[in-house]
Amino acid sequence: MLFNNLLSAVAVSALVSSVVGTSSRNSALPKRPHVEAAPYGTGKAFPKSPARSRKDFCYVNAGKGKNVDDAPGILKAFKKCNKGGTIVLDQKYSIASPLDLTWLSHVDVIITGEVNFKSDPYYWADHSFKYDFQNMSSFWKIGGKDINIYGDLTKGASLLDGHGQAYWEEMAVNKTLLRPILLTIEDAHGLTMSNLRMRNPPNWFNIIINSTDVLISDLDLEAKSLNGVKIANSDGWDTYRSDRIVIQDSVINNTDDCVSFKPNSTNVVVQNLVCNGSHGISVGSLGQYKGETDIVENLYIYNISMSNASDGARIKVWPGVETAFQDLLNGGGGLGRVRNVTYDTFHHENNDNAITITQCYGQKNQTLCNEFPANLTIEDVTMKNFWGTVSTKYDPRAGSLVCSAPDRCSNIVAEDIRVQVPSKKPPVYDCQNIDTSTLDITCRDPTSARDTTNG
């Protein structure tokens, strides 16, 4: 054991023995991009980030061999160049152990190489960071104050890769496998992330937790199965217990929510996204945990191009009774509200539903939901400037706005909704327990059971 520890110490020393970069190496680095929220912001100026020291550049030399773990070397570089320096990841790295980087301060992180997470489902099931909410776990977590993470999309690489294929295949035989999120931003206050590629997360791509003033821009996300195995989850971004978040100017190809606003997400702007294959831009799911209060309010979703998705604009709330949905996803009975949410300028191409509002998430029995209405209310929601075409799946129906009781939804507005159905028939929407006088759509009573595949 002592011999192995000595070897590990020598290996880490080699990885960081030349962390202070030379001027010639520094000259090849991209400059920190000027990233600002546009055209909309959260209502408060983003914290200023001063220039970093021109001397403190920490490079990490990637290890060699099959069983290498670059996590210790990366950790040492972050410690060395924290508080005013720049960490550079410009090689091909393998991360085989969890990394806690939630203590950063006044630091830039340049990723022009590749950060690959070891494909070992059961190692990570045991050793990843765990969270109670929805059985989340994570490879690594980044947080602190005044952090800029960026790459260079013009030169390839600048990549975070979760190598999710092995996890998706294992999910076919083990539905309860805990799978890590590719990147967790936790307790971050004043963080930008831009110009990066993210590929194949075992679970969600990103979660932003307990954070304020986070700006995400110019990211390229893709989850792709090599052999037709179903990709499990793969949300693009989830926000949770966070305030003043902007996600913008990015492309997402995935199989679950493009963006999801989890409990206690406030003052969030999502704008200028191209989403393909997803479950839409989703508020929720909310009200999952009995006795917990979920507040989601002040959201502005602008200029979205959504294609080949199950839903476009979506709000999903659990019913007032506990219910089982999936092996690791069940709940209902939680409290709270959704308030002041706007979806503005939304293009649809081959989405099953242009608009979905449900307070019966996870429950197949709509009658039971009506008997036990959601304890979480939905109010002051506007959807406007929608156009395009939905898929043939429910033609001529183009969406569904179903609340569990008349007093659970109020001031729901739909205006300038020009979404068509493939048959060229007049599009209709299932509407129930909702004031239709503020809806610029043709409503009908629900005529068939809901498709509960996605909740």
Automatic annotation (TrEMBL):
Extent of the signal sequence: 1-21
Residues forming the catalytic site: 279
Name of the top EC class for this enzyme: hydrolase
UniProt subcellular location: Secreted
UniProt GO molecular function: galacturan 1,4-alpha-galacturonidase activity; polygalacturonase activity
Keywords, in A-Z order: Cell wall biogenesis/degradation, Disulfide bond, Glycoprotein, Glycosidase, Hydrolase, Repeat, Secreted, Signal
GO cellular component: extracellular region
Record field: catalytic activity: [(1->4)-alpha-D-galacturonosyl](n) + H2O = alpha-D-galacturonate + [(1->4)-alpha-D-galacturonosyl](n-1)
UniProt-listed Enzyme Commission number(s): 3.2.1.67
Main location: secreted
GO terms for biological process, alphabetical: cell wall organization; pectin catabolic process
Annotated family: Belongs to the glycosyl hydrolase 28 family.
UniProt xrefs under PANTHER family: EXOPOLYGALACTURONASE X-1-RELATED, PTHR31736
Name of this protein: galacturonan 1,4-alpha-galacturonidase
